[in-house]
User: What shape does this take?
Amino acid sequence: MVAKTLVFYWVSYFWNTFRAYLFMIKNLIFLLVAFGGLAFAKAQETPTPKPVSKDSIVKSVEQYFYVDGDSLSAIELDKVLLIQDLNFDSRYERIRYLILKRKVEKVWPYAKLAAERLTVLDKRLASLETTNQKKKYSKMVEDYIEDEFKEKLKKFSKSEGQILIKLIHRQTGNTAYDLLKRLRSGWSAFWFDKTASVFDMSLKEEYRPETVVDDFYVEDILLNSIIDDKLEDQKPAIEFDYFAARAHWKTYEKELPANYDSIQLAARAKRIQEYNEKKARKAKRKN
Assistant: This one.
């Protein structure tokens, strides 16, 4: 009887903790998306990537060069970053990269929108005189926007939430923890961070592509997707060196042990098998 009680207690504890984690992710996005100052405008649509021209001409004072007696006018073009595709030696690392690509392309519009809304929020709140006005404004906008994004954000997986936390730091210059502390309270930020730690993540995580391989993969995916017009560009709020990050990745790949792929691919196959078995059991229970 005691054993059953303990099992029931721990199952209930972890289930409630997981629900709190999901609420944490949703709550953070609601704060960033909702506080954009557009509560009184049209209902917002899900952010979708828009094509961005990479070779638009910048108007400037005309300059002329003389070549073989003929005058030629000069024009100034936007800077274009040219990068080579990553050449993976590790099959497992390439699989990880491709999985990340799908998730980054899903999450990026929300991180970008969060940065835009945070800028508008700061300007709008600065124009309000009293703390009570700011609280009422924030609550009104949050309630308005929640209905627009609630169902979409609930479908984010744990790993997509982790990527979003990283990208929010990239685009705002603030960790998710700092934003929660600023927009809600220090206690809320502390509680949400402790909840997240149960799932092996932290709201204090920063985006560090120069030293963290997964972050470099995210950065490479972003740059290539922007160059290919799959995602809309937005300047990061933090500074980092892409090419230094790429050099670090090359060193990382060279130092992988000889049996790295065989071990990781076997572990991945096992995870897939366990997932399929769990899915089958779930379907069987429904029938």
